[in-house]
User: Fold these one by one.
Assistant:
Number 1:
Amino acid sequence: MLDFLGLPPDASAHGADIDNMIGVVHWLMFALFIGWGIFFTYVLIRFRRTRHQKADYQGAKTHASTYLEIAVAVFEGILIIGFAVPLWAQRVNEFPEDKDAIVVRVVAEQFAWNVHYPGADGFFGATDVNLVSADNPIGLDRSDPDGKDDIVTINQLVVPVGKPVIVRLTSKDVIHSFSIPLLRVKQDVIPGQVIPVWFEPIETTEHIRVAMTKTYSLINPGVNLMTMMTMQDYVDKDSVVIVPAGSILFPDVVEQLVASGYTEVRAAPETPMEIACAQLCGLGHYRMRGFVSVKTPEAYEAWLAEEALYLQ
Ligand SMILES: [Cu+2]
């Protein structure tokens, strides 16, 4: 069932539970669809006009339909009480401790995701609405000792693999929805409220790219090649690498490959993990995309150190 549904790859520790839930719900819906389909077809034929049916004011005398409805209600009850509520409770009640997790703030706005890291000291600096400007989208007060080392990125959430991540969500303007399909996370973002979500990435972005690698035609790829990255080296007839692995397939790169006689390319999305806004939040809603990069712990530390350098 899950293969049939075409869900995106799962990169989150709790993702399998969510997927199972989606699978079970679809099985019930499938059974109902078949049942109703058979009943509908039966009624169409059995009570067709040419049989000159006369209305029967008594109706059905058996209790079969009642029992069936009870069975469906019981099954739905099991789905809610047995599957959905425990899963939801686990997501909203069993938060990891801050000290065991990466904690970031995400401030949504039309139409961007501002990501606020506490920096080396582990404390978020104060923010003030009067300090909000084009250069300082979250109004961070750099004169606050806690705020000096804070890192702020736009549309870029970088996290390490294998460690819980807590995201404290808030919005500067309207309601947005923080959705990362590959991490099986989706939460509305409400102005004036701070809503936490948490997840634990179990795959690095690099691994996900490998898992999503496919062969695409260079002539008729069916996807926007400019969002794709080559997953192997491509050489010309003299075995000189013309397009190394990890190149973005810009038109000139594609031209170069075609000129060397290639018709297909092994490629994967450059940024497979996106934060999509899942609330229609305004005219620019479609371009409210953030990118999640899941790195190895070492690469994550290196990234933090590099970002800290920009502050000096
Ligand atoms: Cu939005």
Number 2:
Amino acid sequence: MGITSLMGTTMSQLRIFALITFVCVALWGCSAKEKPQLTAAQEQAVAERIAPEGHVVKAGQVVAVAAAGAARSGSDIYASNCLACHASGVAGAPILGDVAAWTDRLSKGIETVYSNAINGINMMPARGTCASCSDDEVIAAIDYILDNSK
Ligand code: HEC
């Protein structure tokens, strides 16, 4: 095998290599230019995943959590967790706006009223079933009830 034929082999191998490289780069270039097609639902899902914690708001439902420092107001907590019983007096619950009933409750001291609601008392479930409520949020809801019952 002479030096010329060796060179020839090398040159044709180089050409094939160059061709393969060219095809690969061309294919990669085309696919990279293609914008991924997302449905509206997928875009929403991506937006939620990359959104800062505690700022995701779904239709009518605030997902902001107490841990993120976004405490919910007393009236929010009342509306979503307490109103069901305390608006109509379910199971003997003292009704919002019933001044006499709440004045009577307060006679044992506001701290006791707070802790009874947090820990539960008789038919009153602990935290009014709001497991995600912090103590301060339950207390804010009680203050909201009391402010509207005097
Ligand atoms: C499943 C019905 C129900 C829900 C929901 C509920 N309560 Fe009550 N609550 C009661 C009943 C019944 C009582 C009366 C308990 C008793 O003294 O026998 C009561 C009593 C209370 C009292 C008075 C406690 C005391 O020491 O006299 C407070 C304060 C209170 N609830 C706050 C709340 C708050 C705040 C929420 C929402 C976070 C809530 N409740 C949700 C049924 C409910």
